[in-house]
Specification:
- The radius of gyration is 21 Å and the shape is globular.
- Helix content is 40%, strand content 16%.
- By secondary structure, the chain is α/β, with parallel strands linked by helices.
């Protein structure tokens, strides 16, 4: 079966939750004997790869203009998928899902994965939010099969679109690679067990400004404890510029986008991981932190609550004072790790679940 994937910026080593999802999942699908092609956005790609871990790669142009990038690229990707004879077109995210009806009109079988209601992100204007809602609606209505990454999204699709046959297939996480990187830590000016870790893109809905503000309340009391934020902005804007200014003012260490040994060492040695988001699907960064047995401090939004960890890990969304108190409690406690049940977030199991979806759609005409 020939599977063509679009809706992602690309793999490997491209920042983003959908990108990490595709990077982990589709080599495993290819390993099972499926013919998998991912269509990448050329402007994000720094390599000249035609294949990676059994996954074929095709690069197509996409304008680096936030409102038009995904829709333009997905349109070209649908045409390309038709041309190369895809048995199944797999579209990720609700923006690209605007093209689900077009792909169906071309006679293609479509799987649509919703990673969450992106129209709730503060980064989008009114028109963009309307188009994203339309993409979600068309994806839910016209895709042959719909995959959602959480029960929160599944319940939303039942309520809003009367789509009762969605496949709930969670995001996953790879086995942790515990390691030390003393040279990198010396470069950053941090020590093992003496830093708080944030890890995400610099966009308003992640509420990193709340984390920086909460840290500013306590940093003078605990001068040996640093705040490290790994990530950056995909599109530099007023929010990311101001966030970096505030971070510099309060001595926050910004690493930029990191992967590999540097990221593994940060996860291995942090005191805790913090995610104060107002909007998520099922954040892979949270699952990564849990796989490294880090204490986590996260906002009490429904996708975070679905993870089902100890109630003391949560704080009321937007309450900076309580977030600061949670940070202080972690700092004053002994440095420790936490055991989480990660069985349902196994990428190999998730790959098996998605293959069942592909086989189901492939057998419908038989």
């Amino acid at each position: 079966m020939k599977i063509v994937v679009t809706g992602t910026r690309g793999i490997p080593d491209v920042m983003g939750g959908v990108e990490t999802h595709c990077e982990e999942l589709f080599p495993r699908i290819a390993e099972k004997g499926y013919d998998v092609t991912i269509i990448r956005r050329r402007s994000y790609i720094k390599d000249h790869l035609k294949e990676w871990h059994g996954v074929k790669l095709i690069d197509l142009p996409a304008p680096r203009l936030k409102p038009f990038e995904a829709i333009t690229h997905t349109f070209l990707a649908v045409l390309k998928a038709k041309k190369i004879g895809a048995d199944v077109l797999h579209i990720h995210a609700i923006g690209p899902a605007l093209l689900v009806p077009f792909a169906r009109l071309l006679g293609m079988k479509v799987v649509f994965t919703s990673h969450g209601p992106d129209y709730n992100r503060e980064t989008w204007g009114l028109l963009a939010k309307m188009m994203l809602r339309l993409g979600e609606r068309w994806g839910a209505k016209y895709a042959n099969e719909v995959v959602v990454i959480s029960h929160v999204i599944d319940n939303q699709f039942k309520k809003m679109y009367h789509r009762y046959d969605c496949h709930v297939i969670h995001n996953g996480v790879s086995s942790p690679q515990f390691c030390e990187n003393p040279e990198y830590f010396e470069e950053l000016g941090i020590q093992k067990g003496k830093y708080i870790l944030g890890m995400c893109r610099f966009v308003p809905e992640k509420n990193l400004h709340h984390l920086v503000e909460a840290y500013s309340y306590i940093k003078d009391k605990y001068p040996d404890i640093k705040l490290v934020i790994a990530g950056d902005a995909t599109f530099e804007d007023d929010y990311s510029i101001q966030l970096k200014k505030d971070a510099a003012k309060h001595g926050v260490i910004l690493t930029g986008f990191v992967k590999g040994n540097k990221l593994h060492s940060l996860l291995t040695n942090a005191r805790c991981y913090v995610l104060p988001s107002s909007h998520e699907g099922l954040p892979i960064s949270l699952l990564e932190a849990m796989s490294y047995k880090l204490p986590v401090i996260i906002s009490d939004i429904p996708p975070h609550l679905e993870v089902g960890i100890d109630k003391e890990c949560y704080f009321p969304l937007g309450n900076v004072e309580i977030l600061a108190k949670k940070l202080q409690e972690n700092i004053e406690a002994d440095y420790h790790h936490v055991e989480y049940d990660m069985k349902k977030y196994n990428w190999n199991h998730i790959a098996d679940q998605l293959c069942e979806v592909y086989n189901h759609i492939g057998n419908k005409d038989k």
